[in-house]
Write a structure and sequence with these properties.
The structure is a homodimer of 138-residue chains.
Chain A: H1 2-10, H2 17-29, H3 35-45, H4 51-63, E1 67-69, E2 79-81, E3 88-94, E4 100-102, H5 109-118, E5 122-133
Parallel strand pairs in A: 3-5
Antiparallel strand pairs in A: 1-2, 3-4
The complex binds manganese (II) ion (2 copies) and zinc ion (2 copies).
The site of one manganese (II) ion has 5 residues of chain B, from strand 3.
Chain A binds a DNA duplex (30 and 30 nucleotides) through residues 12-19, 34-36, 48-53, 55-57, 75-77.
DNA sequence: TCCATAAATAGAAATCATTTCTGTTTATGG
DNA sequence: CCATAAACAGAAATGATTTCTATTTATGGA
């Protein structure tokens, strides 16, 4: 939590109850959440809350690297907590419970080299999302 | 083209001018396209065309593996031609011209093994999207 | 070749996620 | 404290996507 608040301060964002509640939610749930999921969960804890606020906060958090936007099958916005701000990211998403786990190893260099050699292109970033069933759901 | 028509037949879909035009477009452009892009392009060749038809065709083609849905930065639906129907896919998308090139090599097994060993999870599929600048745009 | 029939389609309308706008409230540095 | 810009709620607008319905069309079998 303190790490996240530091990121906010570093980017001159104010520490507000809404922002803290959103961080808290991502820290505790560790799942990928849609804006409305976040809205429903955060609204319980606060007296008033607007959905546009959630959209704005999620977008801000995404820009400063507190959360990360994931791929979703239905095209809706989906976010998950993200501990590192890299040009690349690997997530494992449980198809059953939606839990998201970050994967630190990266062996994409081989593929990148292949592309740069065979397609003559310059690879600047990549995103890998793996899906399956997590240990608890098995 | 014939390959695609065969896929349609195999799935008991009728061969219609709209469907052929959409296939034609993906085969010739080789780019990732949004539904409205497809609509604009196909409408030129045909006397009448509804946007819902495009959405439906894109969804159908996606289900039977003629095209593939990609990640898009703005959350809109984006599709690209797809020659193989695998549980996994690797695309290289040019950030400048939007051209999409399929990448055949796969070294994700290492990451999958890592996940299965360290997270105790079962990996069922993955999607890797690499972005950069293609040879022509460099 | 012709027909019956289910599939495909156009166009209008509805839906719904997301964004914009505006007036009010709030966090924070000084 | 206070001034001030940032953050916010709530209403409204937007725009992508989906649904609905009446009409057209592709196609397997006569
Ligand atoms: Mn990587
Ligand atoms: Mn692979
Ligand atoms: Zn799970
Ligand atoms: Zn290019």
């Amino acid at each position: 939590m303190d790490d996240c608040l530091k990121i906010l301060k570093d980017h001159k964002f104010k520490i507000t109850p809404k922002r803290k509640a959103v961080i808290e939610l991502f820290l505790t749930s560790r799942k990928c959440l849609k804006p409305y999921d976040v809205y429903k969960a955060v609204r319980k804890r606060l007296d008033s809350l607007g959905l546009p606020t959630i959209y704005r906060i999620l977008d801000e958090f995404c820009r400063i690297g507190i959360i990360k936007r994931l791929q979703s099958d239905d095209g809706q916005l989906v976010y998950a907590f993200c501990s590192s701000q890299k040009k690349h990211s690997h997530y494992f998403v449980c198809l059953n419970c939606n839990k998201v786990q970050e994967v630190s190893v990266c062996n994409i260099n081989g593929i990148s080299r292949y592309i740069e050699k065979n397609l003559g292109a310059k690879v600047e970033s990549h995103q890998l999302q793996l899906e399956g069933i997590c240990s608890e759901c098995k």
